[in-house]
Design a protein that fits this description.
The protein has 121 residues and is an alpha+beta fold. It has 1 helix and 4 strands. A 4-stranded antiparallel beta sheet has the order 1-2-3-4, covered by helices on one side. It is rod-shaped.
Length: 121
């Protein structure tokens, strides 16, 4: 009598467990990649939005006259993206100074808000 021949290979349960482990690892890697991509896009939006806001605030500071109190909106294109910059000019307790806020939006999503104070020359 011969004993049963030894079988080589993996059982179905072992293969399924290995596939489950690989699937979990791939899902975790995909989530990490997605988070990194979103963070990179957010950083790019902040950088380009800051450039737009600073450009508008510098225009106000370099103007020869004080800006009028009120709200205005300007389109700004940076890096192939279109941003909207809303300027809000408000009085301060000192009549020689005005507060200027620049709110940057990209696709109606707020990106950045910068403020400055401008004064008479």
């Amino acid at each position: 009598m011969r004993p049963f021949p030894r079988q080589l290979g993996f059982t179905l349960v072992e293969v399924l467990v290995a596939l489950g482990i690989v699937a979990i690892a791939l899902t975790a890697g995909l989530q990490a990649t997605t988070a990194l991509t979103r963070n990179a896009q957010r950083q790019l939006d902040l950088l380009l939005g800051q450039t737009c806001a600073e450009n508008e605030l510098i225009k106000v500071r370099l103007a020869r006259q004080m800006p009028g109190v009120g709200d205005s909106s300007v389109a700004c294109q940076q890096g192939g993206q279109l941003y909207s910059v809303s300027l809000s000019v408000r009085p301060t307790p000192n009549p020689n100074f005005l507060r200027v806020d620049a709110q940057v939006r990209h696709d109606e999503t707020p990106v950045l808000r910068l403020s400055t104070v401008v004064g008479r020359f």
